[in-house]
Amino acid sequence: xxxxxxxxxxxxxxxxxxxxxxxxxxxxxxxxxxxxxxxxxxxxxxxxxxxxxxxxxxxxxxxxxxxxxxxxxxxxxxxxxxxxxxxxxxxxxxxxxxxxxxxxxxxxxxxxxxxxxxxxxxxxxxxxxxxxxxxxxxxxxxxxxxxxxxxxxxxxxxxxxxxxxxxxxxxxxxxxxxxxxxxxxxxx
Length: 188
Known about the structure:
The structure is a single chain. The chain has helices at about 1-15, 20-30, 35-60, 65-85, 100-110, 115-125, 130-160, 160-185. The chain is mostly helical. The protein is globular and about 55 Å long.
């Protein structure tokens, strides 16, 4: 269960400082129907975190415990460092004639494949004997940020203190990553 909570918290911090919730807020503004937008969010996040967890499960058995810890440290530090960069608005959304579900799914998959949350999910899944817990935790943590963003829409999202949120996320993720890395190197 430790990995479930670790994945949930790490995904919360990684998503809160990422462009995915902003994209969800844009989708919420563009389409006045939140149910298909939320369905697109759920599908995209399940696919993205599922791919990360499966890859982590495949790689994890090939690594030593120290290497798995260093992989997690790298994922957390890189997620924290990425949070420092000012977010730019998500690129133009696909043609809205596709409807809210298809538009949201395409936009969120394009934005989320290879993002910091997927890397953290990968690293946590590699570290645990039950990678499904990393998947579930990361998915719940991601949805806990993106669904409210979709419901509040873009204007309300942009009024949040995003700079302060990014700095706080950077601090938490970077400190956690550094502590795990130092422990893996037996320097702590």
